[in-house]
Fold:
Amino acid sequence: MSGSPGQAGNAGPAEVPAVLATDRAGFAYRGGRPVLAEVSIAVPAGRGLALVGESGAGKTTLLRLLLGLARPTSGRVLFDGADLVPRDPAFRRAVQPVFQDPYSSLDPRRRIGRIVSEPLRSLGLLAPGSRAARRDEAADRVAEALRSVGLPPDAARRYPHEFSGGQRQRIAIARAIVGRPRVLLADEPVSALDVTTRVRVVELLGRLAESHGLTVVVVSHDLSVVAALCADTAVIEQGRVVEQGLTADVLGSPEHPYTRRLLDSVPRLSRATRLHNSP
Structure:
């Protein structure tokens, strides 16, 4: 994915149809200064894309545009090549979020089975039939999703407070994949977890992307997460994409001064990445 005009760019992958894209998208809160300006990115089907930058760069706002939770004040957001319609059932079934905080994203009053199965009901994904048949189908789909994230089926009978932070994030991921979406949009999915648990959740996301054919978009300031999970990276500075392309190129041979500064703030990753990509 090459940079758009005015942006540093490294050679990207061969042209692959974009599931999600922005075309010169901008966003500003009413009466405020622009948060995003002229942002053009593409999310190719089946590839991981990282959105990286410092706090306040506009990463989460861009993710909200891709989720349809906010509308651009200029430019366009596209889903399968057409203007994104947030209430379109096809979009809602295809794109699911994973939020940052596993503690606040799960309703503590509900059992895990009810939490994970919620998308099946709200998106109309259960087959027509009797109430008992639909309940059995939901239970089977929940058990499948829990197994996919490394949790036993009997977790469905328990409550969120009975699980660790890493397990809660696995439950949140199970909820996101239970409807068999095409795209996961994850906002700092491991930042609230300890280092060991972060590694396990990142590995889980990588396995799910491969085994389920998922396209994963990750907002992260942690470049080690980016290097492990995403084939492509877009670097955002003050609401603008300043560099984008293959992650190995962006992190290994950065062209923009801002990207170099980000790498210099994580010297071990910078050295390791450059050594890995050197001849």
Remarks:
- Confidence is low (pLDDT under 50) at residues 1-6, 269-279.
- The longest strand covers residues 18-28.
- The CA atoms of residues 30 and 207 lie 41 Å apart.
